[in-house]
Write a structure and sequence with these properties.
CATH architecture: Alpha-Beta Barrel
Order of helices and strands: HEHEHHHEHEHEHEHHEHEHHH
Distance between the termini: 53 Å
Largest sheet: 8 strands, parallel, barrel
Strand order of the largest sheet: 1-2-3-4-5-6-7-8
CATH topology: TIM Barrel
Length: 320
C-alpha cells in the first residue's frame, strides 16, 4: 500500500480543498473549506452555476452589505453541498471572520448556514460550523453544541485554546501545525526542524495525549501542513486535513508508514484543569506565538473574505 492508504487505516483523512476534481481523486471521508478556498472555488468553471444561484437568491433576500453577507453564506453552502455529493462524511463551513469576537453573531450566522444546508436537502449531522478559537468563538460553540449544531474550532495554536474547547464540549478542533512552525522559524531564525522536534507537531501531540488521558470526546484534526514529514509524524491522530499536493505525495510514496499517535498509549500524564475566562486570556497573552498567529489568521481570513465579496459584487454588477 502507498502511504495514503496506510494513513487512512489509522487516521480519518480530510481534504483541505474546495476543488471537486481533487476530492474525487483522493476520496477523503470529510472535507473542509475556508474563505480562501471558497474564493478560489468561486472562480472555477464548475461552480459558475452556483455563483449565479447565490446572486439570484441574495438579491431577492436583501440589499447592500447584507446582500453580500448572504451571498457569501449561500455560495459557501452551495459549494459545501456540492462537495458532500462526493464524500461520505461531513463538510466544515466557516462563519465570517468578522464575527470572531461576537458570540451572538457567530451563533446567528451558524444557524443561518445550517438552515441553508437543510433547505438544500443536507441534514445537520453532515455539517460542521467553523469559527476561530477565540474565547467568544468557544463560548458560541458551547451554546451551538447544546443545540445539536456541531462545530470545528479553527485557528487553534495553544494548549489553552485546546483545553477550553474540550471543556466546552466542542465536536472538533483544528490545530494549525504549519503556521506554528512558520512563527518559530521567523522568531528563531532557524531554517529547519526535524519532524519530531517540529513545534507544530509537538503541539498537536500534546493536545492529542491530553484529550485521550482525560477521556474528552473532542476530535483532534491536525491542519495547515507545510510538508509531508509533518503529516507522517502525526499518523494516528484522530483526523488530518491535507492539501491535494500533499495527498498526491502520500499516494506516490510506497514506503512504510509508522503510527506515531496512539490513544491507548497517550504518553506522560498531563494534569487536567478547567480555565476561567481570565485564565484563558492570561495564558494566551503569555503565549506570543498563539496570540500573534490567532490575530493574523483572523485578519487573513477576513482579507480573503473581502476579496470574495469584491469578486461577488463585481459579478453581481455585471449581471444586473
Amino acid at each position: 500500500m502507498n502511504k495514503l492508504e496506510q494513513l487512512k487505516q489509522i487516521t480519518k483523512v480530510v481534504a483541505d480543498t474546495g476543488d471537486i476534481d481533487a476530492i474525487k481523486s483522493y476520496r477523503p471521508v470529510d472535507a473542509t473549506t475556508n474563505p480562501s478556498l471558497v474564493f478560489k472555488a468561486a472562480q472555477l468553471p464548475a461552480y459558475q452555476n452556483l455563483l449565479a444561484e447565490a446572486h439570484r437568491w441574495s438579491r431577492a433576500a436583501a440589499s447592500g452589505d447584507a446582500q453580500l453577507d448572504l451571498c457569501v453564506e449561500k455560495l459557501s453552502v452551495s459549494i459545501g453541498a456540492e462537495i458532500l455529493k462526493h464524500i461520505p462524511g461531513r463538510i466544515s463551513t466557516e462563519v465570517s471572520a468578522k464575527y470572531s469576537f461576537d458570540k451572538n453573531a457567530i451563533v446567528e450566522s451558524a444557524k443561518r448556514l445550517v438552515e441553508l444546508y437543510n433547505d438544500a436537502g443536507v441534514p445537520s449531522d453532515r455539517v460542521l460550523i467553523k469559527t476561530a478559537s477565540t474565547w467568544q468563538g468557544i463560548a458560541a460553540a458551547e451554546l451551538l453544541e447544546r443545540q445539536n449544531i456541531q462545530c470545528n474550532l479553527t485557528l487553534l495554536f495553544s494548549f489553552a485554546q485546546a483545553r477550553a474547547c474540550a471543556d466546552a464540549g466542542v465536536y472538533l478542533i483544528s490545530p494549525f501545525v504549519g503556521r506554528i512552525l512558520d512563527w518559530y522559524k521567523a522568531s528563531t531564525g532557524r531554517d529547519h526542524y526535524p519532524a519530531s522536534e517540529d513545534p507544530g507537531v509537538q503541539s498537536v501531540n500534546r493536545i492529542f495525549n491530553y484529550y485521550k488521558q482525560h477521556g474528552y470526546n473532542t476530535i483532534v484534526m491536525g491542519a495547515s501542513f507545510r510538508n509531508l514529514e509533518q503529516v507522517t509524524e502525526l499518523a494516528g491522530c484522530d483526523q488530518l486535513t491535507i492539501s491535494p499536493q500533499l495527498l498526491q505525495e502520500l499516494e506516490s510514496d510506497r514506503g512504510e508508514l509508522a503510527r506515531k499517535l496512539d490513544p491507548e498509549n497517550p504518553g506522560e500524564p498531563i494534569a487536567k484543569r478547567r480555565l476561567s475566562q481570565a485564565e484563558f486570556l492570561w495564558e494566551m497573552n503569555e503565549d506570543a506565538m498563539a496570540t500573534e498567529k490567532l490575530a493574523e489568521g483572523i485578519r487573513n481570513f477576513y482579507a480573503d473574505e473581502l476579496k470574495l465579496r469584491d469578486y461577488l459584487a463585481e459579478r453581481n454588477n455585471r449581471a444586473a
